Amino acid sequence: MTDFSRILAGGPETTLIPGPSILPDRVRAAMGRSSIDIYSGSLLGVTARCEAGLREVFGTTGEVFIYAANGHGAWDAALSNTLSRGDKILVLQSGRFASGWGEMASAMGLDVEVLPRDWHSAIDLDAVTRRLAADKAHSIRAVLCVQVDTASGVSNDIGALRQAIDNSAHPALLMVDAVASLGTMAFEFDNWTVDVAVSASQKGLMSPAGLGFVAASEQAMEAGKTAGLRTRYWDWQARNTTDHYQKYCGTPPEQLLFGLAEAFDMMAEEGLPSIFKRHEILKQATQAAILAWGCVGATANVTDPKTSHLRSRSSTYRMNWPVKSFRFVVTVVA
Ligand SMILES: *Cc1c(COP(=O)(O)O)cnc(C)c1O
């Protein structure tokens, strides 16, 4: 350890990464409870609270599913519930995470084509329209992308992507990873006609890792009826029930649900517009501070000023280490 890190190690441990993010005291306190009846009683209200909160942040009145899983589990759930071995899918690269989802799809036996992109720009929407228009036989069954790529710090405009897909009059399902972004910026599942969106508990939703989420459109639910990759644990059709135990395909992760319900109560008190604005202000403050370190080699991945609005609220920067010393003060004036 350097002197610097030995001195700082005396304080409370704080990890500042996109996720797991900081747990508010209220969320931690809500989890410090004994287990309760898993079949009936007040836990049903906790599940209902979590589902209502998810519908609000996803922007949907449709189906949402809660898994005892992380974001990778939600990726698996999205693919296995809608597709069959050998189906072709198109992965829209924009950093690391869409590629990771595509690698999982390959391992599951899907035929994955990647529309390549670098780490500095959002998805090329015209290229999407061209590629889908060229698929006259409609052999591409789904298009996979991320709203925010946590590694490159790039955010994609999902409403504009839906328009690009519609311009090609192609019926592929649109699947969006909102693991890093849900709860920090708008997601409009119904308005953008997204078919499947996935997320997880430990980033914008201020909860511990361990819950994976999926929202599914009617088309996605329909595709699920014949999906050959369906397995019993992830199966939407089996979980789409009022039987509380079956909703989780077994014992619900109770304490994680207590925490998530509390996080949604906190978000309701603050209001989504204020939360989004708070994240935007903190993003701009952080970016301004770090870009000022350009003199010591810091750069944002999205370097083109014309597209700087595409820098996401999870900020990733590259530095030419070692930086010998720095002072970093951000004052946010509300
Ligand atoms: C964190 C993250 C994931 C993976 O989530 P895990 O809970 O670690 O499995 C997937 N996609 C994006 C964009 C992420 O930021």
From TrEMBL:
SUPFAM superfamilies documented for this protein: PLP-dependent transferases
Pfam families: Aminotran_5
Family: Belongs to the class-V pyridoxal-phosphate-dependent aminotransferase family.
Taxonomy, superkingdom: Bacteria
PROSITE patterns for this protein: AA_TRANSFER_CLASS_5 (PS00595)
Keyword Flavoprotein: no
An annotated Gene Ontology molecular function: alanine-glyoxylate transaminase activity
Designated name of the protein: Aminotransferase class V-fold PLP-dependent enzyme
Modified residues (N6-(pyridoxal phosphate)lysine): 203
InterPro entries hit by this protein: Aminotrans_V_dom, Aminotrans_V_PyrdxlP_BS, PyrdxlP-dep_Trfase, PyrdxlP-dep_Trfase_major, PyrdxlP-dep_Trfase_small, SP_NH2Trfase/AEP_transaminase
Cofactors, names only: pyridoxal 5'-phosphate
